[in-house]
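Design a sequence for this backbone.
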């Protein structure tokens, strides 16, 4: 059996009377992209900081590439890359100087190619203070992955980035995965987590409420599948057409009949049968599964009721 590259066992972190993280456990394999999701205060950043060796756990066991971050943080410096939720460099340093410095620290060749890929090629000689907030975040990302670490921790990596840079970052994350790098991604962007992550964990009040692949998580709960249908004759538009099996909600919008179904197969079969009975034909049919954001909101509401 392959040994996990990250192991978290009964991890707990307390600040005074506040329990930031309460006995959570999970493990990650090499080359996995793992999304850590949750509202503000759920314990995401605290978990990352303890794994990075920046904070000491109150109790539990944490291992990164077989190393205990709290007792041997120095051994991690070449093995991990970190992009903090907030961070800064000396005001006068340039992106070119920063890349040289960080790569020299890790004893690797300067990765100027990352500056170009992240849209900083024309700013490589500009001082840090003159860069926009988005450009500063891009530089911090480049520094986090410049030494090709085994594990990369990204805390809200795309906050404040434009669409083109977000796409480039996502491509970089996929490249990291393809060469065996493990990525832990803490984000509020549900679509980003759903697109990139092999698995995600959702934290609420310091506890893991669910963990699994995005498909596994969205397949659970009360999420409804949205089915939108437009036909040539509009035979499904009358209110009576809402009486289809497994449909809990029905509405009409822009000549579309829209159904929210608990059973895709039963509802689609009835729609096709209805079209045949009326001699009508399809113009458009769209089936939209519940998203990770839908399930996240559902779990958040359930958590508030506890």
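Sequence:
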């Amino acid at each position: 059996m392959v040994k996990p590259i990250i192991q978290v066992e009964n991890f707990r972190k307390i600040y005074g009377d506040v329990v930031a993280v309460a006995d959570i456990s999970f493990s990650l394999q090499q080359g996995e992209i793992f999304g850590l999701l949750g509202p503000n205060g759920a314990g995401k950043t605290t978990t990352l900081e303890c794994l990075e060796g920046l904070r000491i756990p109150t109790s539990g066991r944490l291992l990164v590439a077989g190393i205990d971050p709290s007792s041997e943080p120095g051994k991690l410096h070449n093995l991990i890359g970190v992009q903090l939720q907030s961070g800064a460099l000396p005001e006068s340093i340039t992106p070119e100087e920063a890349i040289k410095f960080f790569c020299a620290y890790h004893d690797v060749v300067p990765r100027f190619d990352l500056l170009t890929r992240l849209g900083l090629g024309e700013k490589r000689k500009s001082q840090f203070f003159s860069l926009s907030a988005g450009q500063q975040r891009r530089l911090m990302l480049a520094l986090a992955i410049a030494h090709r670490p085994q594990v990369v921790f990204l805390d809200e990596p795309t906050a404040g980035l434009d669409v083109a840079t977000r796409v480039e970052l996502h491509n970089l994350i996929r490249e990291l995965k393809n060469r065996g790098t493990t990525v832990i991604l803490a984000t509020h962007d549900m679509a980003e987590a759903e697109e990139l992550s092999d698995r995600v964990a959702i934290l609420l009040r310091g506890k893991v409420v669910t963990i699994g692949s995005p498909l596994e998580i969205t397949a659970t709960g009360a999420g409804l599948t949205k089915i939108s249908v437009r036909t040539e004759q509009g035979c499904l538009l009358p209110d009576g057409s809402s009486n289809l099996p497994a449909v809990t909600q029905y509405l009409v919008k822009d000549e579309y009949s829209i159904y929210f179904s608990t059973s895709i197969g039963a509802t689609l079969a009835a729609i096709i049968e209805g079209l045949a009975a009326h001699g009508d034909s399809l113009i458009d049919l769209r089936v939209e599964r519940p998203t990770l954001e839908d399930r996240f909101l559902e779990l958040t509401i359930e958590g508030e009721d506890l």
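The first helix runs from residue 44 to 51.
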